[in-house]
Design brief:
There is one protein chain. The chain has 82 residues and is of the alpha+beta class. It has one domain. It contains 1 helix and 5 strands. It has a 5-stranded antiparallel β-sheet, with helices on one face. The mean pLDDT is 94.
Length: 82
């Protein structure tokens, strides 16, 4: 089973642009989703994806955080605050 990641954003436009970037990179499983409040207090829209996160090719100024999803657990991999 592929690893799954979720990215949270400051704006819905950022989420849409990130989603389009992932599709262009070949992640046909990427989709926009609501994110749990426990991982984002921003716009509430996120992107679920399966490509390993690369901050160089997946950079977006509205990207807040990226998490690895393991069952019900969210492990933060990257954040604007880091």
């Amino acid at each position: 089973m592929k690893e799954q990641f979720v990215a949270s954003f400051f704006t819905e436009l950022g989420a849409l642009e990130f989603h389009e970037c992932l599709l262009a990179l070949g992640d046909q499983e990427a989709k926009m989703v609501p994110v749990p409040r426990r991982i984002s207090v921003s716009c509430g829209t996120g992107v679920l994806f399966t490509l390993p996160f690369d901050k160089n090719t997946m950079n977006n100024p509205d990207l807040d955080s990226v998490y690895l999803i393991e069952g019900e657990k969210y492990t933060k991999l990257w954040s604007q605050d880091d």
